[in-house]
Amino acid sequence: MHGLIGKKVGMTSIYGASGKNIPCTVIEVGPCVVTQVRTLEKDGYTAIQLGYGERTEKSTSKAMQGHFKRAGVSPKRNLVEFNDFDSEFQLGDTLKVEDVFNEGEFVSVIGTSKGKGFQGVVKRHGFAGVGQATHGQHNRLRAPGSIGAASFPARVFKGMRMAGQMGNARVTIENLEVLKVLPEEGVLVVKGAIPGHKGATVVIRKPKAQ
Amino acid sequence: MERIKEITNLMVEPREWTEFGAGDTITVTVKITEGKKERLQSFQGVVLQRRGVGMTETFTIRKMSSGIGVERIIPVNSPHIDSIVVNKRGVVRRARIFYLRELTGKSARIKERRG
């Protein structure tokens, strides 16, 4: 499950081999640096921690400053652990987009979806609302309807779909095709949409080794 | 926004056509693939608008086909376009001439630009 950290640039469209117009998302990926190496002896599992994006020393806590100093890198904004990397890494190694991803393979993208706020059931769960808009009806157009039975079970079941916070949640989109890798630009182009707004931090992950 | 345009420009090959805009009558020849065979189909009509910028720019072209209005939206940089021929330059005052949809017969004519 190795991968890299990046930033969503936005969506555009390109033409495929047969001239088909393909919607795609441009992601600025890396360069990521190795900030920690987890070993079986010391941590009980193997992984590497990658850092992405700059942050000022002032806004970094003393503890984290020490962490970055040990790796010999400037303070980073995002830290994510990855495992299953094939080769050995040293602290401070830099990983670029072309080191990890190839055109034509499939990746998963993890990000935070756009927040929609507190939403009713019609928008949040696709309910159809109750009844008609006319013939004297009022108040019920976007209502959820019944949420359960009466004296038995005398409660509302857990997980009943109701109004609440929509979006702003961790979302994984799996199996997106890598259309292009542009090493000079440090850019990865995947087919389709990915979660989050422009400029949002996303994690691009390869599928687990078979 | 600038960054996304830059990157799109790297990935899409620009196509060169003679200048055309709203009000012009053009003939677009489009490649159509049916199974394994490829054939050409031409579409002659009035350009209603050009919209978008850069590599994702499109144009809308309208013609009357046996009394029924037919419109096609085609990306300017589409690899499916074989050729674009400008037949007539029209005099119009606006960039998007959607009012043409409501007009038929004599009133739907567009004055030709001379010289």
Please report the first level of CATH classification, the CATH class of the largest domain in chain A.
Answer: Mainly Beta
Which series of helices and strands of chain A comes N to C? EEEHEHEEHEEHEEEE
Q: So what's the overall shape of chain B?
A: globular
In CATH, the architecture of the largest domain in chain A is Beta Barrel
| Gross geometry of chain A | extended
Q: Which oligomerization state do the chains in this entry correspond to?
A: heterodimer
> What's the average pLDDT of chain B?
89
The CATH superfamily of the largest domain in chain A turns out to be Translation factors
Number of helices of chain A: 4
Give the number of DSSP strands of chain A. Answer: 12
| Spatial strand sequence of the major β-sheet of chain A | 1-2-11-10-7-12
CATH topology of the largest domain in chain A: Elongation Factor Tu (Ef-tu), domain 3
Explain what the structure shows.
The complex is a heterodimer of chains A (210) and B (115). Chain A folds into two domains: 3-116 and 169-205, Translation factors (Elongation Factor Tu (Ef-tu), domain 3, Beta Barrel), CATH 2.40.30; 117-166, no CATH class. Helices cover 11% and strands 39% of the residues of chain A. Chain A is built from four helices and twelve strands, in the order βββαβαββαββαββββ. In chain A, the strands form three sheets. A six-stranded antiparallel β-barrel of chain A has the order 1-2-11-10-7-12. In chain A, strands 5-4-3-6 form a four-stranded antiparallel beta sheet. With 115 residues, chain B is mainly beta. Chain B has one helix spanning 2-11; strands at 25-34, 37-51, 58-65, 68-75, 81-88. Chain B has a five-stranded antiparallel beta sheet with strand order 4-3-2-1-5, with no helix packed on it. In chain B, β3 (58-65) and β4 form a beta hairpin. The longest helix of chain B has 10 residues, at 2-11. The N and C termini of chain B lie far apart (39 Å). The mean pLDDT of chain B is 89. Chain A binds chain B through residues 9-15, 18-19, 21, 26, 28, 180, 182, 185, 187, 189, and chain B through 1, 3-4, 6-8, 10-12, 31, 33, 55-56, 75, 77-80.
